[in-house]
Design brief:
two-stranded antiparallel sheet, mainly alpha, Membrane-bound Lytic Murein Transglycosylase D, Chain A, 20 helices, 4 domains, about 50% helix, Lysozyme
Length: about 425
């Protein structure tokens, strides 16, 4: 997804006035959304009711692209599985804005509904924003978080931008083409056609083949959803209800602590909160929005309210002249491997002067104090001892005892490496 610098001022002004006009419609839109939720049990049915873009006059190409998706049912099923956490939110926002429901399918093309997908073009997130585009649309990117991967923030930015493009071109297919190619390039092709007295219809424009194929893919996916029997495929239903709920975080907190207090896995946390780059949720200028499964929100809030210990065990450290990672690890009572893992530092990569890295808080000056502190922290726990067997992994052990990999590491002061016969302490409240 590309955006050009020209037209930036117009974009920002248009987004501002568009937001103002949306406020007056929000109450009415909310009512319509609630009616939709009650009427459709299956989210795919709700999508179908909002589809609005016509197929091209010659639909052979749509059929061909559709078959390419359904020819590999495992791949298509994986895309559907990826979307289960996020699709309700995207559908609800698209519907609230009165946009055609085909827009909710764009992340299928961009990222296969995987916000953590890696790209060679520096794009990121469900909507695959480039860094410059994200900056223009207000998506923060720093050492702590990349809001291009934030589910709510990136969806809002993408829909804002698509609404701006539709206002500019007054045609949804052209708006979607511009989302892919860039508004400047589409404007040039459109102006050239109009100057020559030709049609401004999407199908009559001499757009790059990749851009036309982008729009055709979107229409093909819509056709698959509407005509599953024609394609010989079954799409498993997705419940027409929210998967996650939001919580405002007003102070820094360790991510492993969040997972423990919310009673969710690290995998689930990352799937819902893929924007975070470090082990700490850092609250900078304004509160951060945290997503949790709906059933876990109250659990988290209740546990957070009664939690009395420090919520952050990591801090930023500025590398000084001549320091190496071995010295820093020893000074902060941790391992080189743990510092490398947490900070994404390669095994043979040297630190640079002034580089910011995360290190543990030093909570005690002497070893005796550290031992006493650990005893106080664990006084309300009893422990099990797990003897490592051949084939054991930290992930499997954590799953068996209902804890996390990071927690086991902290309890045992070890890294990823296990050896047969090794004894691991597992704390239980």
């Amino acid at each position: 997804m590309i955006i050009k610098r020209n037209g930036l001022f117009i974009l920002l002004i248009s987004l501002f006035f568009g937001a103002c006009s949306l406020i007056s419609l929000s109450a009415f839109a909310d009512k319509l959304v609630q009616e939709r939720i009650q009427y459709h049990a299956n989210l795919w049915s709700r999508l179908q009711s909002g589809f609005a873009l016509a197929l091209p006059p010659d639909s052979k190409i749509i059929r061909k692209i559709g078959v390419s998706y359904t020819h590999n049912p495992q791949m298509f099923e994986r895309i559907i599985a990826n979307s289960e956490r996020y699709l309700f939110h995207v559908v609800e926002e698209v519907e609230r804005r009165g946009m055609p429901m085909e827009v909710a399918l764009i992340p299928i093309i961009e990222s296969a509904y995987n916000p953590l997908i890696k790209s060679n073009s520096q794009t990121a997130g469900l909507w695959q924003f480039q860094p410059e585009t994200a900056k223009i649309l207000g998506l923060a990117q720093n050492v702590w978080h990349d809001d291009r991967r934030d589910i709510i923030a990136s969806t809002q930015a993408a829909l804002d931008y698509l609404q701006y493009l539709h206002q500019k071109f007054n045609n949804w297919k052209l708006a979607i083409a511009a989302y892919n190619l860039g508004e400047g390039a589409v404007s040039k092709v459109l102006s050239r056609n109009i100057h020559k007295g030709r049609s401004g219809n999407f199908y009559d424009l001499n757009l790059p083949s990749d851009t036309k194929h982008y729009v055709y893919k979107l229409l093909a996916i819509k056709d698959i959803i509407v005509n599953t029997k024609k394609y010989g495929i079954q799409i498993r239903p997705i419940a027409n209800r929210p998967y996650f709920d939001t919580i405002k975080i007003h102070e820094h907190i360790d991510i492993p602590l969040v997972t423990r207090l919310a009673n969710i896995s690290e995998t689930e946390f990352t799937a819902l909160n893929p924007a975070y780059n470090r082990y700490v949720i850092k609250v900078l200028d304004e509160p951060r929005t945290l997503l949790l499964p709906k059933k876990n929100k109250d659990i988290f809030l209740k546990n957070l309210e009664t939690y009395q210990d420090p919520k952050v065990s990591w801090q930023i450290y500025h590398v000084k002249k001549g320091e190496n990672i071995n010295e820093i690890a020893a000074r902060h009572h941790t391992t080189v491997k743990q510092l490398q893992t947490i900070n994404g530092i390669g095994r043979n990569k040297n630190l640079t002067l002034g580089q910011k890295i995360l290190v543990p808080h030093i909570v005690a000056e002497h070893q005796e104090d550290s031992v006493a502190l650990k005893k106080r922290q664990l006084q309300n726990y009893h422990s099990n001892v797990h003897i490592v067997k051949k084939g054991d992994t930290l992930y499997e052990i954590a799953k068996r005892y209902g804890t996390t990999v990071n927690q086991i590491k902290l309890w045992n002061n070890n890294d990823e490496n296990l050896s047969v016969g090794q004894k691991l302490v597992i704390m239980k409240s």
